[in-house]
């Protein structure tokens, strides 16, 4: 019923030029939701494939853990399953101009502005990509295994991620459920970094609770590798910004830009060898690099250390942590950003506090 109500509301609130995009999104989402099958019913079917049965049982255990340990929403999300006809549910489009890593943003009814635009339909996506490129934008398209409807609907488990290793499967559920618990309109960096931090902390707790030492070792190795890669991408972004700010000819900027991307590829190859990672970001670096691609990673990662520090400061009490984060989200954008920056630089920010007094947080900030 909520879906049927939301479609005309979205269309009334947006420009006619975007009506086709919203109809495409709503129809594709409705089609997927109509394919949902209750997981309990599937498990009661004796003919169910044993491997799929095991994965669905794992989802149920992860879902229970997310509620009891991580204070994530107790609702009908991930209690149903959908078999897709491709390895992803949709594709996200990112765009940036030739001499900037700042991502272009799109604004939507209800959820506000984001730095990406999702597409179910390949033809519609490619048509818009051509429009953006003709307008001078660089684009990056990322395949998305899952997304959150922010609690408006009961999100299903999808075939696009059901076969992932436990630590990746659990992490995806924790990430998307965090969006249902806290979502701040017009602040993609806040939302994605928060979800990524809960994802990371939640995976560690989940694996430790089940004494899954093999996967725990794999995840720790992946975290170290990923941290180095994210730092490399951040360094590349900063280098590009310095290049773009120089008073030099555009042709020289392009030459220096190309060299920066070449150095990044070489540096990643060394990192992958150091950590014995065969896949990871290898395909990401080996394919075309551009401003939109570099910017897309920054969106998900910049504030993760700040939120991880908040979780630790709350002693791993996720209910208290989310209470603090919700109050943080109520601040005006400028004030919220200032507070987050204090968390990012907390080791060198003695004596500073964020403008929220929740329990022991002032002393935690100063400590």
Element layout with pairings:
Layout: H1 2-13, H2 19-33, E1 37-38, H3 39-44, H4 50-68, E2 80-82, E3 90-97, E4 106-108, E5 112-114, E6 117-119, H5 122-134, E7 137-144, E8 157-158, H6 166-181, H7 188-209, H8 213-245, H9 250-274, H10 282-286, H11 291-301, H12 304-313, H13 318-329, H14 333-344, H15 361-366
Parallel strand pairs: 2-8
Antiparallel strand pairs: 1-2, 3-6, 3-7, 4-5
The dominant shape is globular
Order of helices and strands: HHEHHEEEEEHEEHHHHHHHHHH
Measure the end-to-end span. 50 Å
Global mean pLDDT? 87
- Which strands sit side by side, in order, in the main sheet? 1-2-8
The poorly predicted ranges are: 1-17, 347-353, 357-367
Largest sheet: 3 strands, mixed
Q: Can you count the beta strands? A: 8
- Classify the beta-strand content into a percent band: 5-15%
**Secondary structural class:** mainly alpha
Put simply, the count of helices is: 15
Helix proportion of residues, in percent? 55-70%
Radius of gyration in whole Å, from Cα? 21 Å
Describe it for me?
With 367 residues, this protein is mainly alpha-helical. The protein has a domain at 2-197. Helix content is 59%, strand content 9%. The protein has 15 helices and eight strands. The strands form three sheets. Strands 1-2-8 form a three-stranded mixed beta sheet. The protein has a three-stranded antiparallel beta sheet with strand order 6-3-7. The chain has a two-stranded antiparallel sheet with strand order 4-5. Helix 1 (2-13) runs antiparallel to helix 2 (19-33) and helix 7 (188-209) runs antiparallel to helix 8. The longest helix has 33 residues, at 213-245. Mean pLDDT is 87; it is low at 1-17, 347-353 and 357-367.
């Amino acid at each position: 019923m909520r879906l049927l109500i939301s479609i005309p509301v979205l269309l009334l609130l947006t420009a006619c030029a975007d009506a086709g995009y919203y109809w495409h999104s709503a129809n594709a989402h409705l089609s997927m939701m109509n394919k949902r099958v209750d997981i309990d019913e599937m498990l009661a079917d004796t003919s169910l494939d044993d491997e799929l049965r095991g994965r669905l049982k794992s989802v149920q255990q992860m879902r229970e853990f997310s509620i009891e340990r991580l204070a994530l929403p107790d609702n009908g999300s991930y209690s149903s399953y959908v078999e897709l006809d491709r390895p992803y549910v949709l594709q996200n489009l990112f765009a940036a101009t030739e001499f900037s890593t700042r991502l272009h943003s799109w604004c939507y009814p209800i959820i506000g502005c984001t730095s990406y635009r999702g597409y179910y339909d390949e033809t519609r996506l490619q048509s818009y990509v051509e429009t953006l490129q003709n307008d001078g934008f660089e684009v990056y398209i990322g395949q998305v295994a899952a997304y959150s409807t922010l609690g408006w609907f009961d999100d299903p488990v999808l075939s696009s991620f059901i076969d992932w290793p436990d630590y990746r499967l659990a992490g995806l559920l924790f990430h998307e459920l965090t969006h249902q618990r806290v979502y701040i309109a017009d602040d993609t960096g806040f939302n994605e970094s928060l979800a990524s931090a809960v994802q990371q902390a939640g995976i560690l707790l989940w694996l430790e609770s089940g004494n899954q030492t093999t996967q725990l070792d794999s995840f720790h190795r992946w975290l170290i590798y990923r941290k180095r890669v994210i730092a490399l991408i951040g360094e590349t972004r900063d280098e590009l910004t310095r290049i773009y700010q120089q008073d030099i000819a555009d042709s020289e900027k392009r030459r220096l830009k190309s060299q920066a991307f070449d150095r990044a590829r070489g540096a990643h190859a060394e990192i992958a060898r150091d950590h014995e990672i065969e896949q990871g970001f290898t395909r990401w670096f080996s394919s075309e690099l551009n401003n939109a691609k570099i910017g897309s990673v920054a969106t998900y990662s910049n504030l993760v250390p700040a939120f991880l520090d908040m979780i630790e400061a709350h002693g791993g009490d996720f209910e208290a942590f989310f209470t603090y984060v919700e109050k943080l989200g109520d601040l005006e954008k400028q004030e919220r950003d200032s507070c987050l920056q204090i968390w990012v630089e907390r080791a060198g920010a003695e004596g500073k506090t964020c403008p929220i007094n929740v329990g022991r947080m002032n002393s935690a900030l100063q400590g």
